[in-house]
Amino acid sequence: MANAKMTFLNQSEIALIHTQSIRALQEIGIKVHSPNVLKMLGKKGAHVDDTSMVARIPEKMVTEALALAPTFFKLCARDPEHDLALPAHPYPYATTSGLAVFVSDYQTGEYRRSTRKDIAEFAKLGDALSPDFLWTAMTASDVPEKAHGPHEIWETLKYTRKHVQGVTVQSADDATIQIELAALIAGGREALKKRPLISVISCPIAPLSFESGAIEAQVEFAKAGIPICSMSMSLGGLSAPVTVAGMIMNANAENLASLVITQTAAPGAPHIYTSESAPMDMLSGNINYGAPEKALISFGLGQMAKNYGLPCLVSDTGFGDDVRGGLEDVHFIANQFIGLTAYTDIITGMGCVDDAKGISFEQLLIDSYMWDFFRDFMKEIEISEDKMGFDTIKNVGHGGDFLSSDHTLKYLRSDLSQWDPAKLDLLALGKTDMSPKANQIVKQILTDHQVPVLDEAVLREGDKIIKAYEREVSGS
């Protein structure tokens, strides 16, 4: 089956990146700000210096971790119809952005701090639209700071039938609470392990460092069977070499190190090779999501993940400075689509604005409509004798037409894309008119769309767990 992909690295370049990544892990090592995780790695064979908190990881540990990591697993959902098998095929799954601290209020237009109510409504909108699963897209600013992660995962789980990927992991205790909340819906810890309704983003700190709370949380999630996304954020010129090759190598080394930690904690635990690496904008100091090198890094890391047989999340969409999209914004469309043709299983970023610091309900709608069209460029195409229609051409003859042929009737709907005119009408609008029209559609969806309500006993128990955790962290 034919499927459009772009290749960036050749085999010798893939081998060189792997060799240099192994060298970095062996000679430089990783700094792990957790005595417990360092001790765990040391027992497995890492060379640990307790004073510097550096673990040097031999190649054997990486090889064993790659052999243990599953090459196939599912991101499960409350509604099994929304389960997602990894690796994705023929095109990647799309998800929302996270963890924004601002939201553009779809009722008033105010750009303000996000709350639990915003998280719930955004999850409901995402449930109705194209995202295949949802990140915890916003920070709950109206709860105790140390307890916002459980609130975010709980509010999102309540308002979608789809898989939920958490973005906040602050400690092992935080992880335990999030696991308990998901287990309430799954039907217990063992049921959750068999059908992981949540997964989690766990970020190394480039270059080659792991913060204590996040890495101890990663260990707890791994033990519970929750898929880990080891999101390297190697920023060229700031936290990684400024070159594309340097960013790729650093991100690859961090992913391998994170994988080793996951497999040491729980052999066979699901793990997703993940990156949101990009150059730094040397003028503003921000992440330069619009740089063409961002797509090249995605290509390279996608190939590295596939070389290891690991599912991956290495491409993004969105990240504009305001609500944008549509047929007239060629640069925006090209920048998104090029990244989608990398060897990635998951893309993220739907609904974000302000360089991912904010969330827009209107942008999620526009991104969803654009994704509906993008997927058609990435579908599988069967190249076969039957599809080529040799006999049909022979029967029609020179200068004839195929309008009424059996071959045309047989394959018209399956081979040619049928785009929704209403969605095209929105995307064809100019920027001035697109956002207000998108706002009208968002309001209508949130009025009409219904998400099945969780059992009342489950809701009460989840709220009880969070309240108890709030008292615990507030007291500490």
Written account of the structure:
The structure is a single chain. The chain is α/β, with parallel strands linked by helices and 476 residues long. The chain has 18 helices and 20 strands. The chain is 48% helix and 14% strand. It has an eight-stranded parallel beta sheet. The longest helix has 22 residues, at 244-265. The N and C termini lie far apart (57 Å).
Topology:
Layout: H1 11-28, E1 30-32, H2 35-44, E2 47-49, E3 54-56, H3 59-68, E4 73-75, E5 84-86, E6 93-96, E7 102-104, E8 111-113, H4 116-128, E9 134-135, H5 148-158, E10 164-166, H6 172-186, H7 189-194, E11 198-202, E12 209-210, H8 212-223, E13 228-232, E14 235-236, H9 244-265, E15 271-275, E16 278-279, H10 292-308, E17 312-316, H11 330-340, E18 346-350, E19 352-353, E20 358-360, H12 361-377, H13 385-388, H14 390-396, H15 406-415, H16 421-427, H17 431-448, H18 456-475
Parallel strand pairs: 1-12, 6-18, 7-20, 9-10, 10-11, 11-13, 13-15, 14-16, 15-17, 17-18
Antiparallel strand pairs: 1-3, 2-3, 4-5, 7-8, 19-20
Helix pairs in contact: 1-9, 3-9, 4-5, 5-6, 6-8, 6-18, 8-9, 9-10, 12-17
How is this structure best summarized?
The protein has 476 residues and is α/β, with parallel strands linked by helices. The chain is built from 18 helices and 20 strands.
CATH superfamily of the largest domain: Trimethylamine methyltransferase-like
* Number of strand elements: 20
Low-confidence stretches: none
CATH class identity of the largest domain = Alpha Beta
Number of domains: 3
* Principal-axes shape call: globular
The helicity comes to 40-55%
- Oligomeric state of the chains? single chain
CATH architecture of the largest domain: Alpha-Beta Barrel
Mean pLDDT level = 90
Computed over alpha carbons, the radius of gyration is 23 Å
How much β-strand is present in the residues? 5-15%
